[in-house]
C-alpha cells in the first residue's frame, strides 16, 4: 500500500470518529463530562495510574492531571493509596462515575449506530474484525 493510500485510510477513519464525537459531545456534556474527560474516565479501569493514562491516551501528563482533578471534583473518580506501593495513588471510578460513564457510552453508541446503519450487518462485522486486527 502506498503512503498516500495509508494516509487516506487514516484520514477517513479520523473524520468518521471526529464527526461522531462532535455530534454527540453536547449530549455527553449534558451528563457532566467534557469530551476528553469522557475518554480519560473510560480508560481508568485499564490504567489505574495517571502516567499510564497519559501514555494510553497520548496526552501530556499535565493535561491528564487537569482532567483527573475535574473528574475528582465532580465525584466521578477518587485516588486511593496503592496497597502494593504506599507511595503511589491509584485511580478508582466511583459509582457516580460508573453511572455517568455508562450514560455517556450509551449516547456515543446511539450516535455511532446512526452511522453504522450505512453498512449492512456483514460489513459491520468485517469493520469490527479489521479494527480489532489493527489493534492486536
Which keywords apply here?
136 residues, mainly alpha, Arc Repressor Mutant, subunit A, two-stranded antiparallel ribbon, globular, HTH-type_Bedaq_tolerance, WH_DNA-bd_sf
Number of continuous helical runs: 6
Average pLDDT over all residues: 94
Rg over C-alpha atoms, rounded to the nearest angstrom: 17 Å
How far apart the termini lie comes to 20 Å
Shape: globular
Percent helix: 55-70%
Q: Tell me the fraction of residues in β-strands, as a range.
A: 5-15%
| Helix and strand pattern | HHHHEEHH
- At the fold tier of CATH, the topology name is Arc Repressor Mutant, subunit A
The main sheet comes to:
2 strands, antiparallel
- The CATH superfamily turns out to be Winged helix-like DNA-binding domain superfamily/Winged helix DNA-binding domain
Q: How many structural domains in the coordinates?
A: 1
Are there runs of 5+ residues with pLDDT below 50, and where? Answer: none
Number of strands: 2
